[in-house]
């Protein structure tokens, strides 16, 4: 990373004041909220956890990696927020339920769940289907399991908000195999849960991020970043904070009459056709 990259990211993050009280008194569980090692270059889970804590929430940072969960919690702690690391693999019903229970035991309630966990891969023409199965298991079944674990607690709190994280690969051909298929399932699951749980005051919505610059997706170097930047209608590269702010909107009271929605966070890239974009690039 060179200085101008860091400056650009800092200026985006700093452009909006993180601190506020939009989630004051609330408890949020962020699945896949681990991060590290660079506090100036966060993934979407860590940025969401940090923003929610800065907005007054107690945040359960759940991750399969204890190190990554603790890293995010330490960062939140340094900024004066309250966070609890929770180690769980989203594909384990038992681990996820235990994590949700221990957060509620510590914080007294649960109001928000963000399903940020996601892994890529699962080509149809791979030598066997094990990777396909794992990607679907983490992205789709894992999202279902965290919802399943959280729903009784959200209901006990008198309602709440679930924010699922899908991908542009769910709605546009991308050659992503099981990734896109599982993320399309997340959109369908979102509507289905919104249907079933709306009468209990539980809203369920879904973010559909476009190509972002995050540590896990940081491939292809400067040239790839420049292409990503130009391939959307704003000609601005997306980063983790763009997802965090959208998640905050869907988590908080400002979106109180929005449920079963899929919100693209992609600077318009999925609204345009490839041929339409070419003259702009
Ligand atoms: N980065 C992008 O360009 C992009 C684009 C579209 C959608 N998304 C989606 O956004 C989300 C976050 O992406 P990111 O690249 O910012 O990642 P991130 O930095 O937020 O990290 C995701 C976290 O999930 C954790 N995790 C992985 N498998 C797990 C499991 N089985 N159980 C529990 N935790 C697990 C990882 O340890 C990691 O800490 C994902 O759902 C991804 O599919 C990302």
UniProtKB/TrEMBL annotation:
Instruction: Report whether Secreted shows up as a keyword of the record.
Output: no
On whether Cell cycle is a keyword of this UniProt record, the answer is: no
Pfam families in UniProt: adh_short_C2
Keywords for the protein's UniProt record, in alphabetical order:
Oxidoreductase
Q: Which domain of life is it from?
A: Bacteria
| This enzyme's EC code(s) | 1.1.1.-
| GO molecular function term, any single one | oxidoreductase activity
Q: Extract the PROSITE patterns matched here.
A: ADH_SHORT
Q: What family does the entry list?
A: Belongs to the short-chain dehydrogenases/reductases (SDR) family.
Q: What is this protein called?
A: SDR family NAD(P)-dependent oxidoreductase
Species classification: Bacteria, Bacillati, Actinomycetota, Actinomycetes, Streptosporangiales
């Amino acid at each position: 990373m060179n200085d101008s990259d860091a400056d650009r990211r800092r200026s985006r993050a700093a452009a909006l004041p993180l601190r506020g009280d939009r989630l004051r008194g609330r408890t949020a569980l962020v699945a896949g909220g681990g991060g590290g090692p660079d506090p100036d270059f966060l993934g979407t889970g860590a940025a969401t956890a940090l923003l929610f804590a800065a907005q007054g929430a107690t945040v359960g940072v759940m991750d399969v990696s204890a190190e990554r969960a603790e890293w995010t919690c330490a960062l939140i702690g340094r900024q004066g927020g309250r966070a609890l690391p929770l180690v769980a693999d989203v594909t384990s019903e038992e681990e996820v339920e235990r994590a949700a229970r221990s957060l509620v035991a510590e914080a007294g309630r649960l109001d928000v769940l963000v399903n940020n966990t996601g892994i890529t891969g699962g080509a149809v023409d791979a030598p066997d289907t094990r990777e396909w199965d794992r990607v679907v298991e983490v992205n789709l079944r894992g999202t279902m399991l965290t919802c399943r674990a959280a729903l009784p607690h959200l209901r006990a709190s008198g309602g709440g908000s679930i924010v699922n994280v899908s991908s542009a690969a769910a709605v546009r051909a991308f050659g992503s195999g099981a990734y896109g298929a599982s993320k399309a399932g997340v959109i369908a699951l979102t509507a289905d849960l919104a249907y079933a749980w709306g009468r209990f005051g539980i809203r369920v919505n879904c973010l559909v991020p476009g190509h972002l610059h995050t540590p896990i997706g940081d491939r292809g170097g400067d040239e790839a970043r420049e292409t990503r930047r130009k391939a959307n209608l704003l000609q601005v590269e997306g980063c983790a904070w763009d997802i965090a702010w959208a998640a905050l909107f869907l988590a908080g009271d400002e979106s109180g009459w929005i449920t079963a929605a899929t919100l693209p966070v992609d600077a318009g890239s999925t609204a345009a056709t490839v041929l339409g974009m070419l003259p702009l690039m």
